[in-house]
Amino acid sequence: MLEVQDLHRVFGEGENAVHILKGLNFSVKRGEFMLIVGSSGSGKSTLLNQIGLLDRPTSGKVIIDGTDTSILDDNQRSIFRSVKLGFIFQFSNLIADLTVLENVLLPRDIQRTPEGAEDEAKQLLQSVGMENQMYKFANKISGGQAQRVAISRALVNKPAIVLADEPTGNLDSKMALSTVSLLKSLNKKYNQTFIIVTHDRPQFGEVDKVITLIDGEIVHGELEASFA
Q1: Positive or negative, the Cα torsion across 213, 64, 8, 82?
Q2: What are the pLDDT digits (tens) for 35-48?
Q3: Fewer CB within 10 Å, N- or C-terminus of the chain?
């Protein structure tokens, strides 16, 4: 599903150049639940931005579902991103004056693929326990509920890969554990690949794979067993 080959990201030039990612190589299979962990400044979010096609590598390749994204132009990258990738962030970023259901439907509206969208969005909201809140405005639900809506929104396009950047970072410990459980259950239910950046490795328990970054390099290998 994902291959990262000799990935480098350098910001700046000459004496001011900062090498954030240093020749990363790894792969992720379809349906795997993978964590990217590391301290602040290790390159976690930069790596997620490369996989999410939000930034271009200085060199190297990001191959998603067989497509070498390094050869795509900006418009092709935008289309590919909207079709193949779903995003969950630390803050839900819902639109306050839209209902829960309307927020979930936004990616389908942008894609202009309305057929069956409302039924699918309702099914997703049911799967995250929000079926009784779908007609409330987004500013009338709790933070934990808003994150569940954001998760539904990320899945509504049926992306090949779901990318999450600190999805539990803005939640209390109880809600964070509930969100982790939800993400894992959705990963199994829909057989979608989940790649999650987190600073809290223990919170996620057993997963398929872990990549730890230190100063832009992978350490300890990529097998979850190394972190058990």
Answers
A1: negative
A2: 999 888 899 999 99
A3: C
Distances (CA, A) of 150 to 28, 121, 141, 163, 190: 24, 12, 12, 12, 16
Encoding tokens for residue 73? 């132009």
Fill in the amino acid letter for 131. Answer: E
Q: What distance in Å separates the CA atoms of residue 125 and residue 131, rounded to the nearest whole number?
A: 5
Residue-wise pLDDT tens digits, 73-89: 999 999 899 889 999 88
Closest among 70, 75, 76, 32 to 51, alpha carbons compared: 70
Q: Are 150 and 128 in contact (CB under 8 A)?
A: no
Q: Which residues of 207-224 are buried (b: 16+ CB within 10 A; e: fewer)?
A: bbbbbbbeebebeeebeb
* Structure token pair of residue 134: 């779908």
CATH classification code of 29-57+72-227: 3.40.50.300
- Check: CB of residue 203 under 8 Å from CB of residue 176: yes
Classify strands 59-64 and 67-68 as parallel, antiparallel or unpaired.
Answer: antiparallel
Which residue ranges make up each domain of the chain?
Answer: 29-57+72-227
